[in-house]
Amino acid sequence: LSTFESSSPLVIPQSYNLLNNGNNGYTGIDASLNYQLGFSKNKGQLLTGSYMYSFFKNTQEDELRVVNRLNYDSPDYNQQNDAGSREHTLQIDYVQPINKLTVEAGLKSILRSNYSLSAAQNLSTFNGQDLLTEDLDRTNEFNYHQNIYSAYNSYTYQLTNWTLKAGVRLEHTRVDANFLTSSSALEQNYTNLVPSVSVQRRLKNNQSFTFGFTNRLQRPGIWQLNPFIDRANPQIIKTGNPDLQPVTSNLLELNYAKSGTNTFNIKASYFYTGSAIQSVTRLLADTLTLNTFANVGTNRIARLDFNDNFPIGKKVNVSLNTNIFYVWISGFDNGQFYSNKGPRTNTFASIIYKPGREWSFTTSGGYNRRYINLQGSSKDYAYYGLSAAKSWLSKAFTLTGTLSNPFQARYAFTQYSRTNDFYQSNTNNSYYRTFNVSLNYKFGKLTSDIKKNQRTINNDDKSNSK
Asked: Could you report the per-residue pLDDT of 419-438, keeping only the tens digit for each?
């Protein structure tokens, strides 16, 4: 249920209540296969072949009915969207140590297919009968094929207290997108050279300093590309942008690490992106806005990460993770210049108590300070939880109960946008207090630890914020 009221002296007053009977579903599959070949003459020499298959889809169905109308004559309507992504990845890695030098090389192919099927129907009444009429302007079938072919080469040189590493990756991307409903197409071909370099200095007592520079390439994901026009809120229309371009960013990092009983890590970094993908809101008419994505402006982030993990006695372990940001964003959209800046923080802490081999108790909590974008920000939020686990029969069975946010039934998440034309706040209420129970059963017994491949697939090039 949502409510809209407009009482501007410049327009006819409007108001209505919107009833939304919605259903959302998510399905995901990930499967991978790795084969690693070692060589008896040189244990560091490795040849690895990897394959990964990923699939996910999200379905959205809404039945929207308007009641208590005042000067509002838009029809009731239904809308549906089925969107997802299918991905095949093939990768070959080769490692060859030569005295103090280690040479690595590899080939990788990502075959990625994104899709979106959307439809909408307007509801009308004829002779007392409800009729649904297809809204052809909001019906679309969208296919977005993205093939990425890459090769990399890196060199690592080991000294007594120093490690020097430099590498480069060459990527070629081919995009073939089709809007089958409107018989239009989009093609893109681009090639990128992505360098990286790092220097590590090892100290006494398991301590080290590492400095690194990385150039990264991020491609838009289906949630940002999806042309589905979401009118679940008739005054705030949401849609993706199939014309989004990939984003190149530069990252500088300085890291201090200490390992052992007390694991401690602190990292300072600076991140810069040009033509960054940003969420933007545009005014279409009085009280009507469009929210979409665009390659606009620059995004700079100065960041400090702090991680600490330490025991208290033999039964208690404490973990603390804190990320402190300062963000600068600026750019042009729809003929206007925008800039925004400010601090952000993410903090998470947990305490685990194990009185014996069969019981464990955990308390945890976190606090996230506002998210900052080009035109606004969001509300801060905090979360906390308790869990208990009991194992028996040599840990073959484990029963776990988790209670999240027990003293807060609902949470109101608010986003703010401000331009020269309007100020907008959008609040979504969701259930916050939850209770989960799980039972795990382990069968069989391993006589030795599973040997993990030293090289696996990691596709981290997608930007998927919704």
From this structure: 888 888 888 888 899 999 99
Check: CB of residue 173 under 8 Å from CB of residue 190: yes
pLDDT, tens digit, 9 for 90 and up, residues 353-412: 999 889 999 999 999 998 899 999 999 999 999 999 999 888 889 999 999 999 999 988
DSSP 8-state class, residue 225: H
Instruction: Report the distance separating Cα 133 and Cα 113, nearest Å.
Output: 31
What is the model's pTM?
0.85
The contacts of residue 84 (CB under 8 Å, 6+ apart) are 27, 55, 56, 57, 58, 114, 115, 222
What's the token pair of residue 392? 């028996």
Show the tokens assigned to 393.
């029969």
Nearest C-alpha neighbor of 87 from the set 459, 463, 464, 465: 459
Pairing of strands 376-378, 410-418: antiparallel
Q: How far apart are CA 46 and CA 453, in angstroms?
A: 10
The tokens of 189 are what? 């071909």
Closest C-alpha to 165, from 257, 99, 101: 101
For residues 416 and 429, what is the distance between their CA atoms, to the nearest angstrom?
A: 15
- Is 122 part of any domain? no
Tell me the residue type at 88: H
Counted domains in the chain: 1
CATH classification of the domain holding 189: 2.40.170.20
Judge contact between 281 and 251, C-beta under 8 A: no
- Locate tokens 């005295």: which residue? 99
Helix (H, G, I), strand (E, B) or coil at 222: helix
Number of residues that make up the chain: 466
User: CA–CA separation, 203 vs 198, rounded Å?
Assistant: 16
Highest mean pLDDT among 184-188, 397-401, 415-419, 439-443: 397-401
* Burial 71-85, CB ≥16 within 10 A → b, else e: eeeeebbbbbbbbbb
25 located within any domain? no
Residue 123 within any structural domain of the chain: no
Residue 67 belongs to a domain: no
Coil, strand or helix: which one is 223? helix
Contacts of 33 (CB under 8 A, 6+ apart): 50, 51, 52
> Which amino acid is located at 62 in the chain?
D
Q: Do residues 47 and 94 lie in contact, with contact meaning Cβ atoms separated by under 8 Å?
A: yes
- Structural domain containing residue 227: 42-57+84-115+128-463
The number of beta carbons lying within 10 Å of the beta carbon of residue 39 is 11
